[in-house]
Amino acid sequence: MNYEEESRQTLAELKKKDHVRILAIESSCDETAAAVIEDGRKILSNAVYTQIDLHALYGGVVPEIASRAHVEKVDLMVDQALRDANMALQDVDAIGVTYGPGLVGALLIGVSCGKALAYAAHKPLIPVNHIEGHICANFLTDETLTPPFACLVVSGGHSHLFSVDDYGVYRIIGQTQDDAAGEAFDKAARVLNIPYPGGPLLDKLAEEGDPRALKLPRPKTEGRYDYSFSGLKTAFINAVHNARQKGQALNDADLAASFRFAVVSFLVDKAMLAADDLHLTKMALAGGVSANRLLRREMENACQKRGIQLYMPKLSLCGDNAAMIGSAAYYRLMRGEIAGLSLNARPSLRL
Length: 351
Ligand code: KG4
Ligand code: ZN
Hints:
Elements: H1 3-14, E1 21-26, E2 31-38, E3 42-50, H2 52-56, H3 63-84, E4 94-100, H4 104-121, E5 125-129, H5 130-141, E6 149-154, E7 159-166, E8 169-175, H6 181-191, H7 198-206, H8 230-245, H9 252-278, E9 282-286, H10 293-306, E10 309-311, H11 323-334
Parallel strand pairs: 1-4, 4-5, 6-9, 9-10
Antiparallel strand pairs: 1-2, 2-3, 6-7, 7-8
Zinc ion is lined by residues 130, 134, 155, 287-288, 320.
């Protein structure tokens, strides 16, 4: 029996098991991560190595450095995830791995590692979409959350409002026409001389500033629920440069607060426009930017006003991690979505 036939047979047996434990691997950008997840909902272990210090020197992620660091760390993270879960490789039921979207070289490390482990241990291999992983971080935070719900995914590379109609069934309600929200935060942070990744530090600085200090334009979009951050980012950068050239003293905390307020109110207003039009009753946040303090507060207020139930990943699950990949992998496995050894990295994979 070849690997693929064996996987199909194992899959049929797994569907009858009481508990299914998945070893998941994530390496799409600058975090090397592995985790063991039970039944899509319970974290048995969650090991993350962040490469931030390696990239901070260059002001952004350097793909070659990311790939090299993944090669060096991926085995260590897998070992740590298994050890923390008190398991050996043979004890897990399947291997889940992020195969896109992301940096091709970075993705390839995780995919190669996942394939090798799956083949060696005779386990089914589950390909996972990174964005789907971010959405599933909510299943690990709140056991009661079930589809249908809407999810605002805001990360360094993506800003989408999805309707999660069922497990694995996604519809795009709105999306950014240009930059992602996280990318805009990082670029705005750079003009304030905040080191990479600027988002979290800009957020912290903004807590002490006046959001009305600098008035920024509200971007226009073609689609009713779409986003656009490029114009906002440019307006902010120009305003800062102009003020500096004129020798006007601008307070960095005020600037950070003004930019954060513009981005967050845009995100929340559009999500609520969709919520009102489409009579949404359950809404979730996902992705690195879902850690943003103002976004969390404003979403809570807006949802509470409308009687919408809001779900937010706990802070440790907002950024990239493998636990979320393990959750998404479980639901894919239950739907029979497993891969063969020809699985490849898909840098531009869509959901
Ligand atoms: O989801 P993520 O870890 O990686 C991608 O899949 O892109 O998101 C990273 C992004 C970065 O742009 C980072 O600056 C941003 O999320 N981010 C934040 C905050 N924490 C992370 N942006 C604003 N406020 C935060 N607190
Ligand atoms: Zn991510």
